[in-house]
């Protein structure tokens, strides 16, 4: 009795899950935007997270076409965060390079100041 | 009834087994997400620069943990664990970026300060050098009341009857160039003189040529032409009587008359 009931409940839940997944149009837009932004700061396929984001977005679009909206949403959500992480990594990398340039310039200046009488 | 009990038990075992398999993957995803979240949630730098991402990491993790309590939610658990981990990573990255930017700002201030200090030091050393050269020039020159600072390049700098400067003159001329570079507003008049041997016309020409060759050398070494005036006076204005050899040698000379530091030259003779 108990088992039968829970099986029915589970089945209903599953059905409800399927039915309640609308097309994640907004999420796909957000993910695309995140990818664009990452690209704008200089992310390329060399950045692993960017590559992941691209692949997932492509698959999400395929899921959209086949109306697997749940998969489409999950992949698009992951793609968005992958892209955001890629963007952040690129920016950090750039700031690190900037920091290095500045450090060597400051070092050079200090050296020059030392030899000044 | 007696038969259905073992069947049910079997089914249950199978279900638990399946779930166990699935939950192993979910669990490791949850563990990773939890570890990532632990790293950022109490880090004040991260909280300061990316508070919203930390909150979302926590929310997603909570969701994943709640879902993990149900059967058949493996993919969702892993999905939210993944999102949570990404939020944590993004937050950590933003914190790193913010720290870097702070250091860049600070270093850039350092750089500006050092640059200023270096420029001042260089300026001071140029001024010092300038004083040194000025002292040397003053030692070579003398102050004449009506003509200002005058430096005499003696006869030894030229071969007899020749207008070309000897190599030994270079050092003196170099000092002159340095002095003029350090005193960019000063101008000079180069005056050539001879002794009274020879015709006045020849002497005039020779004195002018000698003065000109000193002027040319200054120009070659980078002094602007417009700062140089060249005159030949021939055998006029002797400094000694032309009667003795020594006197004549003293009269064969080139004199450099300096303007004051505002570029004002005493009038020509």
TrEMBL record, chain B:
This is OmpA family protein. CDD domains: OmpA_C-like (cd07185). It is found in: Cell outer membrane. InterPro entries: Bact_OuterMem_StrucFunc (IPR050330), DUF4398 (IPR025511), OMP_bac (IPR006664), OmpA-like (IPR006665), OmpA-like_sf (IPR036737). It comes from the Bacteria. Keywords: Membrane, Signal. Residues 1-22 form the signal peptide. Gene3D superfamilies: OmpA-like domain (3.30.1330.60). Its main location: membrane. PROSITE patterns: OMPA_2, PROKAR_LIPOPROTEIN. Residues 145-262 form the OmpA-like domain.
């Amino acid at each position: 009795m108990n088992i039968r009931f829970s099986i029915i409940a589970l089945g209903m839940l599953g059905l409800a899950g399927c039915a309640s997944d609308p097309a994640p149009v907004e999420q796909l837009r957000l993910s695309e935007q995140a990818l664009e932004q990452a690209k704008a700061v200089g992310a390329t396929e060399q950045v692993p997270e960017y590559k992941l984001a691209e692949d997932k977005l492509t698959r999400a679009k395929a899921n959209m076409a086949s109306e697997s909206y749940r998969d489409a949403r999950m992949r698009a959500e992951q793609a968005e965060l992958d892209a955001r992480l890629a963007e952040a990594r690129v920016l950090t990398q750039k700031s690190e390079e900037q920091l290095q340039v500045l450090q060597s310039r400051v070092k050079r200046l200090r050296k020059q100041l030392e030899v000044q009488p | 009834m007696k038969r259905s009990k073992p069947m049910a038990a079997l089914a249950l075992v199978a279900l638990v087994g399946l779930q166990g398999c699935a939950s192993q993957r979910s669990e490791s995803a949850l563990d990773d997400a939890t570890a990532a979240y632990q790293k950022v949630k109490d880090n004040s730098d991260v909280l300061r620069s990316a508070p919203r991402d930390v909150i979302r990491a926590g929310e997603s993790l909570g969701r994943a943990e709640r879902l993990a309590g149900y059967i058949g939610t493996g993919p969702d658990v892993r999905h939210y664990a993944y999102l949570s981990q990404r939020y944590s990573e993004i937050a950590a990255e933003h914190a790193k970026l913010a720290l870097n930017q702070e250091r860049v700002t600070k270093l850039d201030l350092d750089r500006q300060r050092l640059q200023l200090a270096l420029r001042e030091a260089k300026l001071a050393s140029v001024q010092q050098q300038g004083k040194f050269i000025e002292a040397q020039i003053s030692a070579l020159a003398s102050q004449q009341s009506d003509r200002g600072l005058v430096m005499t390049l003696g006869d030894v700098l030229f071969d007899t009857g020749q207008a070309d400067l000897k190599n030994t003159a270079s050092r003196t001329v170099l000092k002159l160039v340095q002095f003029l570079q350090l005193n960019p507003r000063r101008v000079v008049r180069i005056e050539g003189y001879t002794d009274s041997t020879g015709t006045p016309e020849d002497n005039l020409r020779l004195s002018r040529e000698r003065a000109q060759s000193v002027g040319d050398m200054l120009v070659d070494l980078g002094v602007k032409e417009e700062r140089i005036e060249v005159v030949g006076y021939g055998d006029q204005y002797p400094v000694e009587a032309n009667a003795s050899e020594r006197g004549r040698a003293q009269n064969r000379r080139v004199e450099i008359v300096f303007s004051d530091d505002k570029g004002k030259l005493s009038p020509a003779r």
